């Protein structure tokens, strides 16, 4: 069933106009960069907020990195061949099929997207309206371009989300304590990185 769904999606991809194909080919990699930009935006925003918000902003990229490592470990254990080589009668993948030994399950891109979407949503409540569609689009794009089965990206999204949730739950308290220390540090670069926090921001706002 999964192979048939893969064929249907890749056939659909080949029926799309060339500009749509090109857009998805770019998005499947550019999306990762955009998540990185959002990490920076979330950190900058959290500098003027309470220490819990700042801790969550720091944990978002950390959780994503941990999820990626977990995905790589699972890949090395399962060794699932890429559908662009394994599925008979499927349309040619829109991008080059990864080299033999670069296994398919789970999708690293989908895992990263799932973890980033959740991590950012926890640090920045309304950003989920952007990050969730981004993660789903990233996952779908991996099947659309022909390098993953649907189950690869579905499991990747779930894996990334669960790992991010666990990392954030385990790390919030110690990172919050670290943030409090950073904000009172005598080292100017450390204090700048951590930001003035919510109290100073509130005082500045009151003066205006």
Automatic annotation (TrEMBL):
Keywords carried by this UniProt record: Cell membrane, Hydrolase, Membrane, Transmembrane, Transmembrane helix
Record's bilayer topology term: Multi-pass membrane protein
Origin: domain of life: Bacteria
Subcellular location: Cell membrane
Sequence ranges assigned to domain Phosphatidic acid phosphatase type 2/haloperoxidase in this UniProt record: 54-168
Database matches in SMART domains: acidPPc
Pfam families: PAP2 (PF01569)
Listed transmembrane segments: 26-44, 127-147, 153-172
PANTHER family named in the record: DECAPRENYLPHOSPHORYL-5-PHOSPHORIBOSE PHOSPHATASE RV3807C-RELATED (PTHR14969:SF62), SPHINGOSINE-1-PHOSPHATE PHOSPHOHYDROLASE (PTHR14969)
Protein name: Phosphatase PAP2 family protein
